[in-house]
Amino acid sequence: TNTQTSPSNSELTTTNTTPPTNVVRSTRYYLKIILICVLILCIITSLIVFSIVIAQQSKNQASTTSTITTSLADPTISIVTATMKNSITSTTMTVTTTNKSTCQLKIQSITIERQWHLEYIEGHAIGDFNGDNRLDIAFVDNQNWGINVLVGNGNGTFGTRIISLQNQVEGLKKLSVGDFNNDHKLDLAATDPSNNHIVIFLGNGAGSFEIKQKLQEARFSVPESITIGDFNNDNYSDIAVTFHERNQFNLFVSNRDGTFRKEWPIRTGPNSYPSNLVVADFNCDNHQDIAVVNVYAKNIGIFIGDGNKNFEPQKTSFTGGGEQYPFDLAVGDFNSDNILDIVVSYLNANYINVMFGYGNGSVGDAKMFITGTYTEPNQIIVSDFNNDQYLDIGFGNSGRSLNVLFGFGNGNFELQTVFPTRFQSRSYWIGVGDFNGDGHEDIICANGNDPSYDVFLITCE
């Protein structure tokens, strides 16, 4: 008989069980492998991210040092980033001041040369068109038929050029700024004499514009000057435009959506030939009125508004000036009586007239001031340039300078030449604004035949 002996339980246990120390060692080995792999992956990921960041920084640096043109989603808009050539000169001027003056006037002159050539630049306008709280300049490019914006750098210089609606608008002449749809973004209204249009451009708040409306005028109705006001007290901007050949100006009242409707024409008199106009309250009733320069009639016509789009027949005030015709006007309180006065310039004359307001919509008691030898002021600007709380009068000349009549607050002025320019002929556009954010009004001027701007930063020390 064969006897088979079965293994004992102790023997079975010894044969089939792995020692605990071997299990622990295997677990540690695999953990080490996993940790090493994770570490390698982290290193590779870090290297990839670092390479991307370095490449992006190099790309950004290249874009700030070169000139590029980037097409946006809208094919009618492009941005040109260019390094503007700026020449800066600081000058301390000793100017006439009153006992209320708080500082010495210091003028820093900056010449901004465009790195692009445009031969047919027209109307300019000043405003913050891209929402960065810095003043920019909008202008008409009648060479490429578009609207351009030079973006302000906040220090008196300008950099990026934003081009809108290229090859879509032609023959534009003058610009005026407003917020036509109350979206807190600046819009533009432009005259188009070649097509008898008033063109409305709505801004997008980033420096570009779209055409919202073209207001067609009748044949031979050539728009001349344009300004913005609220003529019906609805807190929406309306438009007034002169048509000198028709001896009238027209009102365009807001539809509150960025479009306008034409109201009835307002006559300025036979053979009056109205040119420039301004909006102000000339009779102290808190309603906006309109004053017009009637060139051939040699008078100022003031139309008193009732706040409901209606205006009284004009009250005319003779401008004098001998054989010379009045051309431009500006408004301010020059004799500190809390009543608005009007200053008038003349064609081909070296003087201006200040006409003092009576508070009833008429002006008179004109006082003449010489603007300098062989000067022909073509545009008038009013501001307190020397910080003495009295309004001064600045103007461009046919010579190479901008002169200022510094006011004493009593209707008297003293002439000084404080802004020498480089232009061979007169400055055809002069603008006022705080271009460096110091709280003082500065001056910018341009000449149609010169590819540059002169900026005068005015500081008080």
Structural write-up:
The protein has 2 helices and 31 strands. It is mainly beta and 461 residues long. Among the domains are: 25-55; 77-110 and 371-460, no CATH class; 115-267, Neuraminidase, CATH 2.120.10. Strands 1-2-8-7-6-5 form a 6-stranded antiparallel sheet, with no helix packed on it. It has a 5-stranded antiparallel sheet with strand order 3-4-31-30-29, with no helix packed on it. It has a 4-stranded antiparallel sheet with strand order 9-10-11-12, with no helix packed on it. The chain is globular and about 110 Å long. This is VCBS repeat-containing protein. It comes from Adineta steineri.
Which architecture name of the domain at 115-267 does CATH use?
Answer: 6 Propeller
Please count the helical segments.
Answer: 2
- Total number of beta strands: 31
Question: Over all CA atoms, what is the radius of gyration?
Answer: 34 Å
- Which overall shape is indicated by the principal axes computed on the Cα atoms? globular
Strand content: 35-45%
Return residue spans where pLDDT drops below 50 for at least 5 consecutive residues.
1-18, 53-75
Mean pLDDT, to the nearest integer, reads 82
Helix content: 10-25%
State the end-to-end CA separation: 129 Å
Q: Could you state the CATH homologous superfamily of the domain at 115-267?
A: TolB, C-terminal domain
